[in-house]
Design a protein that fits this description.
eight-stranded parallel sheet; alpha/beta; 12 strands
Length: about 350
Protein backbone atom coordinates (compact mmCIF):
# COMPACT_ATOMS: atom_id res chain seq x y z
CA UNK A 1 0.00 0.00 0.00
CA UNK A 2 1.34 3.41 -0.99
CA UNK A 3 1.38 5.82 1.96
CA UNK A 4 2.16 9.27 0.61
CA UNK A 5 0.48 12.60 1.27
CA UNK A 6 -1.72 13.95 4.04
CA UNK A 7 -3.94 11.78 6.24
CA UNK A 8 -6.30 13.58 8.64
CA UNK A 9 -6.51 11.95 12.05
CA UNK A 10 -10.29 11.61 12.20
CA UNK A 11 -12.07 12.44 15.45
CA UNK A 12 -14.96 10.51 16.98
CA UNK A 13 -18.04 12.73 17.49
CA UNK A 14 -20.30 12.35 20.49
CA UNK A 15 -23.77 13.44 21.53
CA UNK A 16 -23.92 15.71 24.61
CA UNK A 17 -24.62 12.61 26.73
CA UNK A 18 -21.42 10.93 25.51
CA UNK A 19 -22.95 8.46 23.05
CA UNK A 20 -21.18 8.11 19.70
CA UNK A 21 -22.79 10.28 17.01
CA UNK A 22 -22.44 7.95 14.02
CA UNK A 23 -24.26 10.20 11.53
CA UNK A 24 -21.66 12.90 12.11
CA UNK A 25 -18.90 10.39 11.42
CA UNK A 26 -20.47 9.87 8.01
CA UNK A 27 -20.72 13.64 7.48
CA UNK A 28 -17.08 14.25 8.36
CA UNK A 29 -15.68 11.31 6.39
CA UNK A 30 -17.69 12.26 3.32
CA UNK A 31 -16.36 15.82 3.51
CA UNK A 32 -12.75 14.71 3.96
CA UNK A 33 -13.22 12.43 0.96
CA UNK A 34 -13.96 15.51 -1.16
CA UNK A 35 -10.59 17.07 -0.31
CA UNK A 36 -7.22 16.18 -1.89
CA UNK A 37 -6.00 14.23 1.16
CA UNK A 38 -4.53 10.80 0.46
CA UNK A 39 -6.61 8.97 3.01
CA UNK A 40 -7.97 8.89 6.53
CA UNK A 41 -6.86 7.45 9.85
CA UNK A 42 -9.74 6.11 11.90
CA UNK A 43 -9.39 5.34 15.63
CA UNK A 44 -5.99 6.93 16.10
CA UNK A 45 -5.14 8.90 19.20
CA UNK A 46 -7.16 11.89 17.99
CA UNK A 47 -10.12 9.55 17.53
CA UNK A 48 -10.28 8.96 21.29
CA UNK A 49 -10.03 5.24 20.61
CA UNK A 50 -9.02 4.49 24.18
CA UNK A 51 -12.31 6.06 25.33
CA UNK A 52 -14.43 3.64 23.30
CA UNK A 53 -15.78 0.19 24.01
CA UNK A 54 -14.87 -2.66 21.69
CA UNK A 55 -18.31 -2.55 20.08
CA UNK A 56 -18.09 1.21 19.61
CA UNK A 57 -14.72 0.87 17.90
CA UNK A 58 -16.18 -1.66 15.51
CA UNK A 59 -19.16 0.54 14.71
CA UNK A 60 -16.92 3.58 14.16
CA UNK A 61 -14.83 1.56 11.72
CA UNK A 62 -17.95 0.42 9.88
CA UNK A 63 -19.55 3.88 9.67
CA UNK A 64 -16.29 5.38 8.41
CA UNK A 65 -15.60 2.84 5.67
CA UNK A 66 -19.16 3.07 4.41
CA UNK A 67 -18.86 6.86 3.99
CA UNK A 68 -15.31 7.01 2.57
CA UNK A 69 -14.61 7.35 -1.13
CA UNK A 70 -12.96 4.23 -2.55
CA UNK A 71 -9.81 6.05 -3.73
CA UNK A 72 -8.95 7.17 -0.20
CA UNK A 73 -6.55 4.95 1.74
CA UNK A 74 -8.16 3.89 5.02
CA UNK A 75 -5.91 3.24 8.00
CA UNK A 76 -7.53 1.62 11.03
CA UNK A 77 -6.15 2.11 14.51
CA UNK A 78 -6.26 -1.42 15.87
CA UNK A 79 -3.57 -1.39 18.53
CA UNK A 80 -4.34 -2.76 21.99
CA UNK A 81 -2.26 -3.79 24.97
CA UNK A 82 -2.28 -7.45 23.98
CA UNK A 83 -1.54 -9.32 20.77
CA UNK A 84 -4.87 -11.15 20.78
CA UNK A 85 -7.01 -8.01 21.11
CA UNK A 86 -4.96 -6.20 18.48
CA UNK A 87 -5.50 -9.08 16.05
CA UNK A 88 -9.23 -9.28 16.75
CA UNK A 89 -9.81 -5.66 15.78
CA UNK A 90 -7.38 -5.92 12.87
CA UNK A 91 -9.26 -8.89 11.47
CA UNK A 92 -12.52 -6.97 11.77
CA UNK A 93 -11.00 -3.98 9.94
CA UNK A 94 -9.73 -6.30 7.19
CA UNK A 95 -13.22 -7.72 6.74
CA UNK A 96 -14.44 -4.16 6.17
CA UNK A 97 -11.72 -3.69 3.52
CA UNK A 98 -9.48 -1.27 5.40
CA UNK A 99 -6.06 -0.96 3.82
CA UNK A 100 -3.62 -0.75 6.72
CA UNK A 101 -3.58 -1.46 10.48
CA UNK A 102 -2.04 1.25 12.67
CA UNK A 103 -0.69 -0.47 15.80
CA UNK A 104 0.48 1.71 18.67
CA UNK A 105 3.07 0.56 21.14
CA UNK A 106 1.71 -1.29 24.17
CA UNK A 107 2.76 0.81 27.15
CA UNK A 108 0.65 0.25 30.26
CA UNK A 109 3.20 -2.15 31.77
CA UNK A 110 6.02 0.16 30.80
CA UNK A 111 8.74 -1.27 33.07
CA UNK A 112 8.40 -4.60 31.24
CA UNK A 113 8.17 -3.08 27.74
CA UNK A 114 11.81 -3.71 26.94
CA UNK A 115 12.99 -3.90 23.31
CA UNK A 116 12.63 -7.68 23.28
CA UNK A 117 8.99 -7.40 24.42
CA UNK A 118 8.14 -4.89 21.70
CA UNK A 119 9.89 -7.00 19.07
CA UNK A 120 7.88 -10.04 20.14
CA UNK A 121 4.62 -8.07 20.19
CA UNK A 122 4.95 -6.57 16.73
CA UNK A 123 6.28 -9.74 15.15
CA UNK A 124 3.38 -11.75 16.54
CA UNK A 125 0.89 -9.19 15.24
CA UNK A 126 2.55 -8.86 11.83
CA UNK A 127 2.85 -12.63 11.38
CA UNK A 128 -0.91 -13.10 11.70
CA UNK A 129 -2.35 -9.77 10.58
CA UNK A 130 -4.46 -9.88 7.39
CA UNK A 131 -3.54 -6.21 6.85
CA UNK A 132 -0.12 -4.64 6.39
CA UNK A 133 1.03 -3.13 9.69
CA UNK A 134 2.06 0.44 10.33
CA UNK A 135 4.04 0.86 13.54
CA UNK A 136 2.81 3.69 15.74
CA UNK A 137 5.03 5.41 18.26
CA UNK A 138 3.32 8.31 20.04
CA UNK A 139 5.32 9.25 23.16
CA UNK A 140 3.22 12.36 23.99
CA UNK A 141 0.41 9.97 24.94
CA UNK A 142 2.10 6.69 25.81
CA UNK A 143 5.28 8.13 27.38
CA UNK A 144 7.08 5.41 25.42
CA UNK A 145 9.23 6.14 22.40
CA UNK A 146 9.89 3.10 20.23
CA UNK A 147 13.70 2.84 20.04
CA UNK A 148 15.36 3.31 16.68
CA UNK A 149 17.09 -0.07 16.86
CA UNK A 150 13.73 -1.80 17.39
CA UNK A 151 12.19 0.07 14.46
CA UNK A 152 15.05 -0.95 12.20
CA UNK A 153 14.73 -4.58 13.24
CA UNK A 154 10.96 -4.58 12.66
CA UNK A 155 11.34 -2.83 9.31
CA UNK A 156 12.73 -6.11 7.96
CA UNK A 157 9.39 -7.88 8.50
CA UNK A 158 7.57 -8.28 5.17
CA UNK A 159 4.19 -7.34 6.66
CA UNK A 160 5.41 -4.21 8.47
CA UNK A 161 5.32 -1.55 5.78
CA UNK A 162 6.18 1.59 7.71
CA UNK A 163 5.74 3.73 10.78
CA UNK A 164 3.80 6.71 12.04
CA UNK A 165 6.41 8.58 14.05
CA UNK A 166 4.82 11.14 16.37
CA UNK A 167 7.68 12.24 18.58
CA UNK A 168 8.40 15.29 16.41
CA UNK A 169 12.08 14.34 16.38
CA UNK A 170 13.38 15.28 12.92
CA UNK A 171 16.77 13.70 13.55
CA UNK A 172 15.09 10.39 14.33
CA UNK A 173 13.01 10.59 11.16
CA UNK A 174 16.14 11.21 9.08
CA UNK A 175 17.94 8.33 10.81
CA UNK A 176 15.04 5.94 10.13
CA UNK A 177 14.85 6.92 6.49
CA UNK A 178 18.59 6.55 5.99
CA UNK A 179 18.86 3.24 7.84
CA UNK A 180 15.97 1.63 5.92
CA UNK A 181 16.94 2.70 2.40
CA UNK A 182 18.12 -0.81 1.64
CA UNK A 183 14.62 -2.22 2.11
CA UNK A 184 13.15 -2.64 -1.36
CA UNK A 185 9.45 -3.34 -1.73
CA UNK A 186 6.92 -2.74 -4.44
CA UNK A 187 3.34 -1.57 -4.07
CA UNK A 188 0.40 -1.59 -6.44
CA UNK A 189 -0.70 1.85 -7.64
CA UNK A 190 -3.05 3.31 -10.20
CA UNK A 191 -1.74 4.26 -13.62
CA UNK A 192 -1.12 7.76 -12.23
CA UNK A 193 1.07 6.31 -9.45
CA UNK A 194 -1.52 7.04 -6.80
CA UNK A 195 -2.54 4.63 -4.06
CA UNK A 196 -4.68 1.71 -5.17
CA UNK A 197 -7.28 0.28 -2.80
CA UNK A 198 -9.33 -2.90 -3.14
CA UNK A 199 -12.46 -0.80 -2.71
CA UNK A 200 -11.82 0.91 -6.06
CA UNK A 201 -12.94 -2.11 -8.05
CA UNK A 202 -15.73 -3.12 -5.70
CA UNK A 203 -17.33 0.35 -5.63
CA UNK A 204 -20.37 0.89 -7.88
CA UNK A 205 -19.86 2.82 -11.09
CA UNK A 206 -20.57 6.53 -10.77
CA UNK A 207 -22.31 8.69 -13.35
CA UNK A 208 -19.02 10.32 -14.25
CA UNK A 209 -17.45 6.94 -14.91
CA UNK A 210 -20.17 6.04 -17.39
CA UNK A 211 -18.66 8.29 -20.06
CA UNK A 212 -16.55 6.11 -22.30
CA UNK A 213 -17.43 2.89 -20.50
CA UNK A 214 -18.15 -0.25 -22.40
CA UNK A 215 -21.87 -1.07 -22.55
CA UNK A 216 -22.79 -4.62 -21.67
CA UNK A 217 -26.15 -6.00 -22.69
CA UNK A 218 -28.32 -7.30 -19.89
CA UNK A 219 -29.38 -9.94 -22.36
CA UNK A 220 -25.77 -10.96 -22.84
CA UNK A 221 -25.48 -11.38 -19.10
CA UNK A 222 -28.68 -13.45 -19.07
CA UNK A 223 -28.03 -15.26 -22.34
CA UNK A 224 -30.42 -13.27 -24.57
CA UNK A 225 -30.77 -9.80 -26.09
CA UNK A 226 -31.88 -6.95 -23.88
CA UNK A 227 -31.18 -3.48 -22.53
CA UNK A 228 -27.58 -2.27 -22.40
CA UNK A 229 -26.14 -1.08 -19.08
CA UNK A 230 -22.80 0.48 -18.19
CA UNK A 231 -20.15 -1.90 -16.90
CA UNK A 232 -17.62 -0.37 -14.54
CA UNK A 233 -14.13 -0.75 -16.04
CA UNK A 234 -11.52 -2.51 -14.02
CA UNK A 235 -8.92 -0.13 -12.60
CA UNK A 236 -5.61 -0.41 -14.42
CA UNK A 237 -2.66 -0.71 -12.08
CA UNK A 238 1.11 -0.65 -12.12
CA UNK A 239 3.94 -1.31 -9.67
CA UNK A 240 6.02 1.26 -7.79
CA UNK A 241 8.91 0.91 -5.36
CA UNK A 242 8.00 2.18 -1.91
CA UNK A 243 10.38 0.61 0.60
CA UNK A 244 9.82 1.21 4.33
CA UNK A 245 7.41 4.16 4.53
CA UNK A 246 7.66 6.86 7.17
CA UNK A 247 4.71 9.06 8.14
CA UNK A 248 5.01 11.76 10.79
CA UNK A 249 2.49 13.19 13.21
CA UNK A 250 3.48 16.78 14.00
CA UNK A 251 2.07 19.54 11.79
CA UNK A 252 4.50 22.19 13.03
CA UNK A 253 7.43 20.12 11.70
CA UNK A 254 5.70 18.78 8.56
CA UNK A 255 7.96 20.38 5.98
CA UNK A 256 11.16 19.56 7.87
CA UNK A 257 10.00 15.96 8.17
CA UNK A 258 9.27 15.72 4.45
CA UNK A 259 12.70 17.16 3.70
CA UNK A 260 14.19 14.55 6.04
CA UNK A 261 12.64 11.78 3.94
CA UNK A 262 9.13 11.21 5.29
CA UNK A 263 6.57 10.34 2.63
CA UNK A 264 3.62 11.99 4.31
CA UNK A 265 1.90 12.77 7.56
CA UNK A 266 -1.00 11.76 9.79
CA UNK A 267 -2.12 15.03 11.35
CA UNK A 268 -4.59 16.03 14.03
CA UNK A 269 -4.33 19.56 12.62
CA UNK A 270 -5.63 18.21 9.30
CA UNK A 271 -8.90 17.29 11.04
CA UNK A 272 -10.03 20.95 11.05
CA UNK A 273 -7.67 22.19 8.31
CA UNK A 274 -6.84 19.54 5.70
CA UNK A 275 -6.41 22.04 2.86
CA UNK A 276 -3.46 24.01 4.25
CA UNK A 277 -1.73 20.77 5.26
CA UNK A 278 -2.12 19.42 1.74
CA UNK A 279 -0.85 22.72 0.31
CA UNK A 280 2.38 22.35 2.28
CA UNK A 281 2.82 18.79 1.04
CA UNK A 282 1.95 19.75 -2.53
CA UNK A 283 4.38 22.69 -2.60
CA UNK A 284 7.14 20.45 -1.25
CA UNK A 285 6.34 17.74 -3.79
CA UNK A 286 6.50 20.35 -6.57
CA UNK A 287 9.85 21.58 -5.22
CA UNK A 288 8.43 25.04 -4.48
CA UNK A 289 10.27 25.26 -1.18
CA UNK A 290 9.69 28.97 -0.72
CA UNK A 291 5.93 28.49 -0.91
CA UNK A 292 6.09 25.41 1.30
CA UNK A 293 8.08 27.30 3.94
CA UNK A 294 5.66 30.22 3.91
CA UNK A 295 2.66 27.94 4.36
CA UNK A 296 4.48 25.91 6.99
CA UNK A 297 5.26 29.00 9.05
CA UNK A 298 1.65 30.11 8.81
CA UNK A 299 0.36 27.04 10.66
CA UNK A 300 2.98 26.75 13.42
CA UNK A 301 1.25 28.95 16.05
CA UNK A 302 -2.16 27.38 15.42
CA UNK A 303 -0.95 23.78 15.32
CA UNK A 304 1.09 24.16 18.49
CA UNK A 305 -1.70 25.85 20.42
CA UNK A 306 -4.64 23.80 19.15
CA UNK A 307 -3.06 20.35 18.93
CA UNK A 308 0.01 20.25 21.17
CA UNK A 309 -1.25 22.38 24.05
CA UNK A 310 -5.07 22.28 24.15
CA UNK A 311 -5.48 18.88 22.48
CA UNK A 312 -8.57 17.04 21.30
CA UNK A 313 -11.18 19.46 22.75
CA UNK A 314 -9.54 22.27 20.77
CA UNK A 315 -9.21 20.17 17.62
CA UNK A 316 -12.92 19.45 17.79
CA UNK A 317 -13.84 23.09 18.32
CA UNK A 318 -11.64 24.08 15.37
CA UNK A 319 -13.54 21.53 13.28
CA UNK A 320 -16.83 23.17 14.28
CA UNK A 321 -15.45 26.45 12.92
CA UNK A 322 -14.65 24.88 9.55
CA UNK A 323 -17.81 23.02 8.66
CA UNK A 324 -16.92 19.66 10.18
CA UNK A 325 -18.64 18.31 13.25
CA UNK A 326 -16.33 18.32 16.25
CA UNK A 327 -18.54 18.60 19.27
CA UNK A 328 -17.38 17.74 22.74
CA UNK A 329 -14.74 15.23 23.80
CA UNK A 330 -15.68 12.28 25.94
CA UNK A 331 -15.19 12.68 29.68
CA UNK A 332 -12.75 12.94 31.42
CA UNK A 333 -11.31 15.21 28.72
CA UNK A 334 -12.36 18.70 29.85
CA UNK A 335 -14.48 21.10 27.79
CA UNK A 336 -12.93 24.35 26.62
CA UNK A 337 -13.44 27.62 28.42
CA UNK A 338 -14.95 30.63 26.67
CA UNK A 339 -11.52 32.28 26.60
CA UNK A 340 -9.94 29.22 24.97
CA UNK A 341 -12.67 29.14 22.33
CA UNK A 342 -12.04 32.79 21.51
CA UNK A 343 -8.34 32.09 21.20
CA UNK A 344 -8.94 29.19 18.83
CA UNK A 345 -11.23 31.32 16.69
CA UNK A 346 -8.40 33.81 16.27
CA UNK A 347 -5.58 31.36 15.50
CA UNK A 348 -7.75 29.35 13.09
CA UNK A 349 -9.17 32.35 11.22
CA UNK A 350 -6.69 31.99 8.37
CA UNK A 351 -7.42 28.33 7.65
CA UNK A 352 -10.97 28.20 6.38
CA UNK A 353 -11.94 25.19 4.29
Amino acid sequence: MLLQGIFPAVTTPFYPDGAVYYKKIEHNVDRYSRTPVAGLVILGSTGEAVMLSDEERRQVLRASVEAAYPEKVLIAGTGAESVIETLRLTEYAAALKYDVALVRTPHFYRPQMKPEALLAFYRAVADRSPLPVLLYTVPPFTAYDLPLEVILELAQHPNIIGIKESSGNIEKVAAMVQATRHIKRTVTTTELLQAYTERMNSAPASASQANGEQLVSVGELAGHAGIAVAAKPKIKTRQKEAGFQVLVGAAHTLLASLQAGAGGSVLAFAAPAPTICFEIYSAWRDNDIELAQAKQQSIVPASKRVVSELGIPAVKYAMDLNGYYGGSPRSPLPPLTAAQKSEIEIVMSGFKN
